[in-house]
Structures are given as structure tokens and as C-alpha cells.
Amino acid sequence: MLSLLYQEGPSTEGIFRRSGSAKTCKELKEKLDSGAEVDLACESIFVTASLFKDFLRNIPGSILSSQLCDKWVSVMDQGNNEEKIRNIQRLIEQLPRANVVLLRYIFGVLHGIELRSEENQMNAFNLAICIAPSLLWPPVSSTPDSESEFTKKISSLVQFLTENCCRIFGEEINSLFGEI
After folding, report:
1. 44: alpha, beta or left, given left = phi > 0 and alpha = psi -120 to 50?
2. Which residues form the Rho-GAP domain (predicted)?
């Protein structure tokens, strides 16, 4: 999925914003969940993007860990960019290794898409609005007002992560997918 998104996402206007066919997504999700072989290259990239966001939303406790939710929410209120980067790196170190590996690939894809934002209309802000709710959610339900504030803070965090991913995850993030 990520490889396809890395290949096609940068040249696709509105990637992660437009939804894939709900019927196709449901059918493919059922096939994937049953372990059946699925060739996503034959599907719309919007279906792949929708399936990927659904996958992220189904990670127990979220990829950024709901246990660290308060720390993630407050990190953007702390100091200058260098301090934010250091605090983010400290939080990343507290995540399970599998989550960190997946995050590196996710932000490698988002970075690649952002680099061609003039073509695809998906700058870091737009990407964050679309993907942030799939990366972290509060551990308990909340009021609509506090949920709205939470979404703004997490979107700001994801935008910052996208814009600074090379400094946060390392320059090798640019070569994670090799020569596809």
C-alpha cells in the first residue's frame, strides 16, 4: 500500500482527500482481512489511500499511542522548533518499534507528496487535515468542542512532522522506498 502511495500519491490531485469507492473498499478490506491475495495496483489510488487510512484507524490505541496522547497534544505548545523536534523524538522513542518503522514510511510518503504539492494540491497542512485523525485519537470520548480542539492540535502536529520529517526521522527517509 505504502509503495503504491509513494509512487502514485505525488502525482494524484487530492490524494487522501478524495475517498475511494465505499463498495470496493469494503470488498477489498474483507479480502485483505481474510488473507486473500489482493492486487491494489489494479485499483484506484483513492481506494488504496482509503484502505490505508482505515488500516491506521484500526491500530489498537493508535499508531502514536493513545497512552501518550496528552504529551503529543502538548508538544506543539513547547518552545521553538528545535525543542519541538527533540520532544517529538523523545516521544517516538517511547513507541513500539513496529510503530516507529511504520511512522517513518508514512512520513516518507507524506513528504514525497508534499514535495509535489503544486501538482497535487496536498501541502503539509492539507495532508495533516486528512491523515491526522487516523494517527491519534483520545483514549476516551469527549465533547464535540474538545474533540474539535484536539483535531486542530493533532493536525498541527502532523503538519509539523511532515514539514520536518527529515530532521525528525533522518535524511534516509528520502530513500526508504529505494528506486521504485
Report:
1. beta
2. 1-169
Name the domain count of the chain. 1
Task: For residue range 81-129, list pLDDT tens digits in order.
Answer: 999 999 999 999 999 999 999 999 999 999 999 999 999 999 999 999 9
Q: In this structure, is residue 179 part of a structural domain?
A: no
Spell out a b/e string for 153-179, using b for 16 or more CB atoms within 10 Å of the CB, else e. bbbbbbbbbbbbbeebbeeebeebbee
Domain CATH number, residue 85: 1.10.555.10
- Residue located via cell numbers 530513500: 175
Q: Residue 16's domain spans which residues?
A: 1-174
State which H helix or E strand residue 28 sits in.
Answer: helix 22-34
Residues lower than pLDDT 70 in the chain: 142, 179-180
Whole-structure pTM value: 0.92
For residue 180, tell me if it sits in a domain: no
